[in-house]
Amino acid sequence: MSSLSVEFAGVTFKNPLVLASGTCGFGREYAEIFDIKRLGGLASKGLTLNARAGNEGLRIWETNSGIMNSVGLENPGVRAFIERDLDWVNGLGVVNIVNLGGHSIEDYIEGVRLLNSVKLDILELNISCPNVKAGGMNFGVKTELAREVVRKIRATCKHKLSVKLSPNAEDIVALARACEEEGADGISLVNTFLAMAIDLEGRKPVFGNTYAGLSGPAIKPIALRMVHQVAHSVKIPVMGMGGVVSWRDAIEFIMAGASIVQIGTGNFIKPDISLDIIDGIEAYLDAEGIGSVSEIRGIV
Length: 300
Known about the structure:
Helices cover about 30% and strands about 20% of the residues. By secondary structure, it is of the alpha/beta class. Strand 7 (about 95-100), helix 4 (about 105-115) and strand 8 form a beta-alpha-beta unit.
């Protein structure tokens, strides 16, 4: 049988499938539905230093071939995660990827310091958050702003560091290279695309914040292009995501250069879809006589 084992920044995954941050909580609910120990890894609900209630009003809106969300990083905060969920996730036997966001560099650094003292495998740094001290501009839009936050986090962080990039960046390749230059161990992309929906009857935006994040199959071709561009422009490994709902999608991302594939919106379509994808990848490799996933990574 073909080997599904892959390596990302020195961390070994039993297979390349990871549940994406913001789509699986901390895994407890999914564990009641399927054997999540079969996964390669799990990326936690996005954490911030302190607990957040999230956005008011409508949070999810279905679109053609996707969904829009305006959840607003609702989460219990880093300390509560460490106290209530960390040991449980570490006991699953999957790679524990902790996603961390922040609205100031100081918040990021304090969150990292708390996480430095505990066991986890990879810290996934979400730089798509608005910087409240820079007029609300997202850290991940401007290359030099992203460079600054990654430099300061890298100086503090003791864990493997993967930076999650926004597709709304001014130059996704330049941004990825800046993260690499500042010491990131890997890149995760893409986050959701900035989008909009209008309530015709109400004659107003559907979401209270007007704009929201679009994910799902609709974004896959663009996400695949960005993963291909970045994976062929940096030496550090890439976690690819964006509309993956089948094993064929996952193989495309791997062929484009991704070492790991994250599943997000697909989890809402079919909660155990990741197991279908794992089985499909294995069947494909066996049928094609391919010994391991690494043989086809980045071949396109």
